[in-house]
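Posting for a labmate who doesn't have an account.
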Amino acid sequence: YQGSIDFKLWPSRFYGIGSEPEFLDIPDQEEEGILYKSTNISIDNNYSRSPDGKFWYGVGHKYKYEALTWDEQEQILDSTNTTKKTGFLGGVESGFGVVFSYDTRDNINSARKGYFAQISNYTYKPAFGSDFEYTHSQLDLRYFLNLPGERVIAVRALQAIQNGDIPIQNLASTDGIHELRGVSEGYYHDKQLSAYQIEYRGTPMPWKFGYRVFADAGQVRSDFNEWDSKAFKVTYGFGIRWALNPERRYNVRIDLPIVDGALSPVIQIKEAF
């Protein structure tokens, strides 16, 4: 069993929807986005079992209550570009799902070898107490190739597909920390997401330091038929790791991705994937 409860009171910005986000009905806001404040509490429960320690299957429940307030609230509600969208004032999301995974990684914090595959499907509907009715399916694939000298090549592919009335705050998106590093969370979001990553994890250095070289690519779209290789966004850069707990490979991560020609640092505990 795994469970978590999170509470957030956080300012954020809405930039629009799609791979080229625009907010057409409120001029001069496309670049800086429209500020809003989110108050939310989320509860995530997952019950899983494994017959062999590698293959896992389970069921889960996700619940989130969220209230949004906007600096441009009157324009938001009057905007013909947004009244067709869902969840601009927040609401309740409640969904049940199934999760299947296969995991041969030698370490979940910073793997040097093995692979990980997980597929999940969650359904949100009024019968479960949700204000919104939609499905969220996700496939997450990771592979770690161990090279001599504790060097590693790590690759990841992520695909998310949603259908129904998805609230804007839960549209598929790169978070800027784990996928498409350096891009503001929610800058690109839509009903579907494809993300790919490759990372070279170099030989450990003195004083518990290490380094990384990485590249991330991602695309959001409203329909799978809208797939366009030219719409992929790319970030790349260099990272430094400091082993907070070497035995468990628990690292402090500093990544320096280049986004639109400028550095956009990311500081986090644990690897991106």
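Reply:
Got it, the structure tokens are right above this. The mean pLDDT is 90.
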